[in-house]
Amino acid sequence: MEGDEIIQISPDQAxxxxxxxxxxxNPELPEGKAxxxxxxxxxxxxxIDTINVIERSHHIVFFTRCPDYNQKYLHELQAKDKKIFEYxxxxxxxxxxxxxxxxxxxxxxxxKKDSWLDKWIKEHRSLIRKVRARVIKHGPxxxxxxxxxxxxxxxxxxxxKPAKMALExxxxxxxxxxxxxxxxxxxxDITERVLPxxxxxxxxxxxxxxxxxIKRALNAMGIATIQDINxxxxxxxxxxxxxxxxxxxxxxLELTIKDLNKSYYILTKDLEEIRKSKTGISxxxxxxxxxxxxxxxxxxxxxxxxxxxxxxxxxxxxxxxxGYFCLPILWQNQxxxxxxxxxxxxxxxxxxxxxxxxDKKINYNKFMPALSRxxxxxxCFHKCEKIELSKNIPTNIRRKITx
Length: 403
What we know:
Elements: E1 7-9, H1 11-21, H2 33-43, E2 46-47, H3 57-65, H4 72-80, E3 84-88, E4 92-96, H5 104-108, H6 116-123, H7 125-138, E5 141-142, H8 156-159, H9 162-172, E6 176-182, E7 185-190, H10 191-194, H11 206-221, E8 223-224, H12 226-232, H13 240-249, E9 252-257, E10 260-267, H14 271-276, E11 285-287, H15 298-305, E12 327-331, E13 334-344, E14 349-357, H16 364-381, E15 386-389, H17 395-398
Parallel strand pairs: 1-9, 14-15
Antiparallel strand pairs: 2-4, 3-4, 5-7, 6-7, 8-10, 9-10, 11-12, 12-13, 13-14
């Protein structure tokens, strides 16, 4: 609060609060799909991604927090229970249906004037109307239900065919929703037919909306810089003005982390969590998806964990240092290495192409049994009956892994 001395906490306290908020330390989640739903509500969103060298990112995010997680839960929550919906948060994401009204203003926004999207929509209004009319009459429909245009000139947005682009434009504008996914393909329907009747669609004013996104970010991160708050849910926009308001009103507090030359913010109600946090309280090893909420803000990851991470899927093989789809390894309250797995689904083998560990952060007598357990659980989740360790992994490490 204004005039008060700024609180300073230790890096361990900051990490522990953050990991608890991210449900990576002693998550108190119900069993079954209720646990998956609660995870989305607590995290604010879960990013969807297409890469499937192992299970897709969103499934790994849930498995990391919900040991009994089953991939069918998301389909049931979206298509049957209508407890979650898809929209743009940090990126294409799964979001609690309770939050729907806070995304309405984004749906109503016009594309930036003279942007390629603005021009595309203006040039294809007739197509957009026809696609919408067809969904109204025959929906729900997928992009594969529409024919492509022969000999068309290729353009941006992953070379989507015009009908797919029209479906996406209608989706961004809130006219269509994703009813479900079939073999990971989006199935669109008119919003009125997808949105549950009991959902609050009262549009918040600007202040309510902005403060909602600040609380969403801080509830999920515990402590965060203004840059973290602005980026956690990217569609929220710049929130600096409303952070200042909440600081002055005492809803949030400013603090610092020892040895980090930055200002951080915390919800006032969460200050007690700092005092209760302990170091090293989680014996489990967890493999984090590259798109996991806990590491998606790379600068934050570097600052809090002294761990520089980037996804190497999009760079040439010859320039990769750690692997195509390497996952950071979380143990206790530290990121201690990277693992590069691949699921051979046909032969039911989980292949570990590489394993990089930071010796300075590891007590191997405690870590190796936890790593072995995590590998076996990860293989089981991928329905793999065998684990194959690459010769790239140092012999002294391979010998200590029990599989």
